[in-house]
């Protein structure tokens, strides 16, 4: 590329000469101050700028079909206009809005076609990758990562397509997922405690369980509120209890809790826990020590928001390991798509996903999970990405 020297009495004038010659996209090189002989014989200080024409948009990908034809024939870019071109353009009638819209639509159509071609090229490159690497990429899209992803993506053989790999992944996920259970449909006496981080929806989920157990399954229900940290938690449960016709207990001591666990005659005893979820909390220590005295099947259901990535979901399971969770419930499903992260936690910790919570309504927004439904929800991000 050959640079040309332009000069002016200052930098502004020199750059003006560059723009006049090569347009606003010119390539600017070295700049220097020089002394030259003036008209009166005295030396004058001037600024010299080296510049060259821009390589132009023809070097961009797909530029050949996007740049208007008149721009291609002008090596100095669209920024340079001669006086003659200005006069001729002013004498011509304005282009109609219909013609402009038509040209814009045509350009967009070409861009969409080129994007499709690029996607086809990317897919062709991906098809050359080893099956395991392609499987790990699919699992990453779903939200499954870490050790579980390595286990699900290993020994794929020579799969011919991503669809074949996805089918194998589905089969493996289905085999690895523990079987869900609808606790409310059980004929036995049950004790269910919801645990989890702040704001995950423990109280609302328990209210849904209480309402469904009472209204849909005809079971006798009582609630034990151990949440002494959240302001108004007990009052909120008293209101829920009146609406559903369910007794609510707020034990003040381990002795009170033991009496409720031992003597409550209901079919379904639900326990709301504080969000701290720590073994150092007095009420949680009491519950852990006394729950066996209830002489019921005991379920500690850990609630996880649907939007968690796999490693984060599994990390929360480990954080609540001291409470010995027996199952999972997916909450906040109205805030995201796909539950791959909770699927990973379920497989990694061997905990079934028993319930899905889709919103705040009591009791409508809670449903019992099934394996086929969990698989479908896990694959939503992948199905979206291929369209």
Just give the CATH class of the largest domain.
Alpha Beta
Radius of gyration: 35 Å
> What's the total number of strands?
11
Q: In angstroms, what separates the terminal alpha carbons?
A: 44 Å
At the fourth level of CATH, the homologous superfamily of the largest domain is: P-loop containing nucleotide triphosphate hydrolases
Poorly predicted spans: 57-91
Q: Secondary-structure element sequence? A: EHEEHHHHHHHEHEHEHEHEHEHEEHH
* Tally of separate helices: 16
Under the CATH scheme, the architecture of the largest domain is 3-Layer(aba) Sandwich
- The overall number of domains is 4
Structural class determined from secondary elements: alpha/beta
Beta content: 15-25%
Mean of pLDDT = 78
* Strand arrangement across the biggest beta sheet: 6-5-7-4-8-9-10-11
Largest sheet: 8 strands, mixed
CATH fold-level assignment of the largest domain: Rossmann fold
Any idea what the shape is? elongated
Care to describe what's here?
The chain has 387 residues and is α/β, with parallel strands linked by helices. It folds into four domains: 4-89, no CATH class; 93-128; 130-176; 183-385, 3-Layer(aba) Sandwich (Rossmann fold), CATH 3.40.50.300. 45% of the residues lie in helices and 17% in strands. It is built from 16 helices and eleven strands. The strands form two sheets. The protein has an eight-stranded mixed beta sheet, with helices on both faces. Helix 11 (254-263) runs parallel beside helix 12 (282-290). The protein is elongated and about 115 Å long. Residues 57-91 have low confidence and may be disordered.
């Amino acid at each position: 590329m050959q640079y040309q020297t332009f000069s002016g009495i200052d930098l502004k004038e020199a750059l003006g000469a560059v723009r006049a010659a090569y347009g606003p996209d010119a390539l600017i090189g070295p700049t220097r101050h020089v002394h030259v002989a003036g008209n009166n014989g005295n030396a004058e200080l001037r600024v010299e700028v080296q510049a060259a024409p821009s390589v132009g948009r023809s070097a961009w990908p797909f530029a050949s079909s996007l740049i208007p034809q008149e721009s291609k024939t002008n090596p100095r870019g669209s920024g340079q206009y001669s006086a003659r071109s200005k006069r001729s353009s002013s004498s011509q009638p304005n282009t109609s809005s219909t013609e402009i819209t038509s040209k814009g639509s045509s350009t967009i159509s070409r861009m969409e076609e080129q994007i499709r071609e690029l996607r086809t090229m990317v897919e062709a490159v991906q098809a050359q990758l080893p099956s395991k690497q392609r499987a790990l990429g699919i699992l990453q899209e779903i939200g499954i990562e870490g050790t579980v992803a390595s286990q699900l993506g290993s020994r794929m053989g020579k799969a011919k397509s991503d669809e074949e790999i996805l089918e194998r992944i589905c089969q493996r996920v289905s085999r690895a997922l523990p079987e869900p259970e609808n606790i409310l449909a059980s004929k036995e006496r049950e004790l269910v405690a919801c645990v989890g981080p702040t704001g995950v929806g423990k109280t609302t989920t328990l209210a849904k369980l209480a309402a469904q157990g009472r209204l849909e399954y005809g079971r006798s229900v009582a609630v034990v509120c151990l949440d002494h940290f959240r302001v108004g938690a007990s009052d909120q449960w008293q209101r829920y209890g009146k609406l559903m016709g369910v007794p609510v207990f707020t034990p003040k001591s381990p002795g009170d809790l033991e009496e409720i666990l031992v003597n409550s005659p209901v079919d379904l005893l639900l326990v709301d826990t504080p969000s701290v979820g720590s073994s150092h909390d007095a009420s949680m220590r009491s519950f852990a020590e006394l729950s066996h005295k209830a002489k019921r099947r005991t379920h500690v259901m850990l609630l996880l928001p649907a939007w968690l990535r796999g490693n984060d979901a599994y990390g929360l399971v480990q954080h609540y390991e001291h409470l010995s969770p027996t199952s999972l419930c997916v909450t906040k499903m109205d805030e995201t798509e796909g539950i791959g992260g909770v699927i990973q936690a379920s497989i990694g910790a061997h905990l079934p996903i028993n319930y899905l919570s889709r919103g705040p309504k009591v009791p409508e927004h809670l449903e019992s999970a099934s394996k086929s439904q969990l698989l479908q929800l896990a694959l939503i991000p992948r199905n979206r990405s291929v369209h």
